[in-house]
Amino acid sequence: xxQYKTIKNFGLEKDEPTNILEIExxxxxxxxxxxxxxxxxxxYTTWCGPCKKIKHLYSDLYGKHxxxxxxxxxxxxxxxxxxxxxxxxxxxxxxxxxxxxxxxFQKDLSVVGGDLEKVKQNIDSILFD
Length: 129
Description:
- With 129 residues, this protein is α/β, with parallel strands linked by helices.
- It has one domain: Glutaredoxin (3-Layer(aba) Sandwich), CATH 3.40.30.10.
- 31% of the residues lie in helices and 20% in strands.
- It starts with 20 loop residues before the first strand and ends with a helix.
């Protein structure tokens, strides 16, 4: 399970958060969605100001609230500029957060924009409702 998690820091820029896994290709994304009970994908671009602004906040949210307490939850990110394709629903803006539970896309939980409080509320609704 989650063989990529052990190499997640490979090739990161110096200022990149190290607890957020970068999706490497389409098969990698599919594997993560299959291997974890709860998956939150941050779709971003390298040129997006709000994406840059929240990347460390996204990492902090994961590290402070979920990473150690809920090993079945994983936060990942994917640069949509790399166009891996085969999206269930193509992100309509960036940043865009998609949620998967037991491999199933949760359309109603999607968040477009940098509203990490909404992202946290959605995760908590999955875990605690």
